[in-house]
């Protein structure tokens, strides 16, 4: 299956979910045009309080649609944009990408992968019990596996629409695994 965009979402105000759009425009160095999280420095409400001048490594949130299938099997109805992502994909193992991987999306846009989305308690407000389903703890070593998507920065702007292809370029090794950003 070819990796592709299945939905795009944005919101100009802070809210947990983001409405789906017919298209979004990525702006180099900023994020999604008109989205509340776009900017050169941190735009996450909680983090802006204590580190407002740090670079925004969370300009774009990408989520794999396969997670919604997994969650449906556990009784949770979740659709594109519900968890606040900007770009929903299918056919690409987002969580397995290394830090620094480049995603060419559509004809022009390029997003550099910066890390994992850190799932927050608001997920339980959206759907009670959902937070425990978007991360796992390895009982042998206590390591966390975050499943709530990945974050990135826009290296090259461009329009993105549902159905657009996604091509991956991984950096030369050794690879740096994704960590929370």
UniProtKB/TrEMBL annotation:
This is MOSC domain-containing protein YiiM. InterPro entries: MoCF_Sase_C (IPR005302), MOSC_domain (IPR052716), Pyrv_Knase-like_insert_dom_sf (IPR011037). Transmembrane segments: none annotated. Residues 19-169 form the MOSC domain. Pfam families: MOSC. It comes from Streptomyces clavifer. Signal peptide: none annotated.
């Amino acid at each position: 299956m070819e990796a592709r965009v299945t939905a795009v979402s944005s919101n100009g105000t802070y809210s947990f979910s983001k409405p789906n759009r017919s298209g979004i425009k990525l702006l180099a160095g900023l994020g999604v045009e008109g989205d509340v999280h776009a900017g050169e420095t941190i735009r996450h409400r909680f983090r802006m309080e204590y580190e407002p001048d740090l670079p925004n490594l969370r300009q774009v949130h990408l989520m794999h649609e396969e997670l919604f299938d997994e969650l449906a099997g556990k009784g949770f109805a979740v659709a594109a944009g519900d968890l606040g992502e900007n770009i929903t994909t299918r056919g690409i193992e987002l969580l397995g990408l290394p830090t620094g991987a480049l995603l060419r999306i559509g004809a022009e846009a390029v997003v550099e992968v910066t890390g994992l989305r850190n799932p927050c308690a608001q997920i339980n407000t959206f759907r009670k019990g959902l937070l425990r389903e978007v991360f796992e703890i390895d009982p042998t070593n206590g390591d966390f596996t975050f499943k709530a998507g990945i974050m990135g920065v826009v290296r090259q702007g461009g329009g993105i629409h549902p159905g657009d292809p996604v091509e991956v370029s991984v950096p030369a090794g050794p690879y740096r695994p994704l960590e929370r950003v």
